[in-house]
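lol ok so funny story. i was supposed to be doing the assay writeup but got distracted and ended up predicting the structure for this chain instead. priorities right. anyway since i did it might as well share w the group, maybe its usefull for someone
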Amino acid sequence: MPSVAIVSTYFSTKRALAVGLTSAGGSLSGILYPIIFRRLHPPLDFGWTTRIIAFIVLATQLISLTILRARTIPNSPRALLEPVAFKETPFALFTLGMFFFLNGLYAPYFYVPIYAERIIGTSPDFAFYLLAIINAGSFVGRVFPPLIAHRLGPFNTLLLCLFITGIIGFAWMSVHSVAGIVVFSIFYGFFSGAVLALPPTVIVALSPDVRFAGVCGGDDDGGIELDFGVEDIASWEP
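and the output, tada:
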């Protein structure tokens, strides 16, 4: 069962906040790891830089693996794919919709540094740290919108954040200054972070049984992983 799905099964009234705090660790790593990589390379070669980051990941993951405990254990072994989940129309439509939206969500994460350096004319160092700025906004976005989700509902909050993220994404075309790209990075990171934090809560609500939450989350994440593959192919340059 995915770790985020495990956390969600322990909460009922503040599930969105719990999942948001859990997923915020991903944004924190998005802030720290690029900076660590930038500081270690080129003083160290690429191989040792990667190994050091891998050891940091191993150390932090050992803490998570030590304290994680599944709340509900299915009577039979869990299946890799749960076809019954896709028979639920809301879940199937939600997975399809998130697949298409996430196909473009990560474009700024990949291209904002390049855009800042080549189009706006910032220094390579400043352009690189825009990635940390986006992830800093994402960190806040994974914590505070889930607080609102307790009043509006996780699905309504997710729809609102999806809409705003799309508007900010289109506004990227009008950014032509250093201040503008910084503001864009902060706000895009904030709302895209909310988009990434809220789906696990929605998935648990759409799951036919809480015991299947991990499998349903995996089925939904499978579409997301396929989406990453599509985006990698689209962004590949020979």
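The first helix runs from residue 3 to 8. The two ends are 38 Å apart (CA to CA).
back to the writeup now i swear
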